[in-house]
Amino acid sequence: MIGGAPVYLVQRRRLLGQSWATPLVWLASVLAYLASAGVVGMLGGVELDPATLEYEIEQGYREYGERAVVDCPDSAIAPVGGSVSCWATFSDGSVAEGVITVENAQGWFTWQESW
After folding, report:
1. Per-residue pLDDT tens over the stretch 70-94
2. Which DSSP helix (H) or strand (E) runs through 68?
3. Regarding predicted confidence, which is higher, 106 or 4?
4. Which UniProt keywords are listed (predicted)?
């Protein structure tokens, strides 16, 4: 349990007369772990599922009465704040580019049609 570990480490330090090194290393490790998800997303990029992107964009067009088939790249990877392009082909044959922007390291995204 994460809540019990720091209490145990501080009590052990006090009872045995040890230094603060062990509790501080534990704290640094927990903080590094919690921060790592955001860092990985910013540095290495976030892999987005192309099928999910295509489905969400197609649903977005349906809400406005448009029928479109969307095609996104098989390897949709972008850093947080970065973007990936997908293409929508409409029933009349016209094509539009959709720009997907990665919002966070968990893969949340927004999209908008490029003009």
Report:
1. 999 998 889 999 999 999 999 999 9
2. strand 68-71
3. 106
4. Membrane, Transmembrane, Transmembrane helix
Domain ranges of the chain: 4-43, 46-113
Closest by alpha carbon to 79, among 32, 39, 52, 113? 39
CA distances from 24 to 29, 62, 92, 98 (A): 9, 54, 64, 47
pTM of the predicted protein model: 0.59
Total Cβ atoms within 10 A of residue 88: 22
| Dist. CA 86–CA 96, nearest whole Å | 9
Q: Are strands 68-71 and 83-90 parallel, antiparallel or unpaired?
A: antiparallel
Taking the CA atoms of 77, 89, 113 and 65 in sequence, report the sign of the dihedral they define.
negative
Q: Are 56 and 103 in contact (CB under 8 A)?
A: no
